[in-house]
Amino acid sequence: MSDPALESTRRRLTAKQADTVDRLGKAAVDLLTREGFAGLTVRRVAAEAGVGAATAYTYFSSKEHLVAEVFWRRLAAAPPVAHESGDAATRVVDVLSHIAALVADEPEFAGAVTNALLGRDPDVDVLRQRIGRDIRDRLTAALAPDTDPEVVDSLEMLYSGALVRAGMGQASYADIARRLEKSARLMLS
User: Fold this and answer.
1) Global pTM exceeds 0.70
2) Where in this chain does the record put each HTH tetR-type domain (predicted)?
3) In the chain, which residues fall in CATH 1.10.10.60?
4) Are residues 152 and 139 in contact, defined by beta-carbon separation less than 8 angstroms?
5) Per-residue pLDDT tens digits for 72-131
6) How many Cα neighbours within 13 Å face the side chain of 153?
7) Which candidate, 30, 116, 154, 184, has a CA 20 to 30 Å from the CA of 50?
8) Could you please report the per-residue DSSP string of 68-100?
9) CATH 1.10.10.60 is right for the domain spanning 15-60
């Protein structure tokens, strides 16, 4: 049985099903790299992965759901950052940089993640909540236990806004990472 932390949004997975979902995710990223988000469809991903379209649709309700699921799996599989610094701003920057690095080298995938997470698909909503909780937990762990929850909320908004700006092409993901660091340090000084 697959890891419950990485369970699919729509159903529990056997080992064979988990392999199919993994193949679909890899095919989606490969197709995004070549064709961009506009060229991505669940049917094309299924063909690329050697899976029937009907099978792909049993796991993913839409291309947005598929992309959000791939990002969620990367985030959930990424171990939390070790907090070695005594400086809260450095720890927060480390967390934000670590999360940004999950997509930084794949601009087409990164833009697709932004598009996907802004979607209205109910399956995406479930993933958006999981992703948000995970990021909030990572930020909270980087801060002092008595940190005002408003600070965590502001850091979450900072990260979300950075993703949207990068997804709109206003800056590269490398530029966004540098801007995140400056902004987080300003907020926490």
Assistant:
1) yes
2) 18-78
3) 15-60
4) yes
5) 999 999 999 998 899 999 999 999 989 988 988 888 998 899 999 998 999 999 999 999
6) 3
7) 116
8) HHHHHHHHHHSPPPP---S-HHHHHHHHHHHHH
9) yes
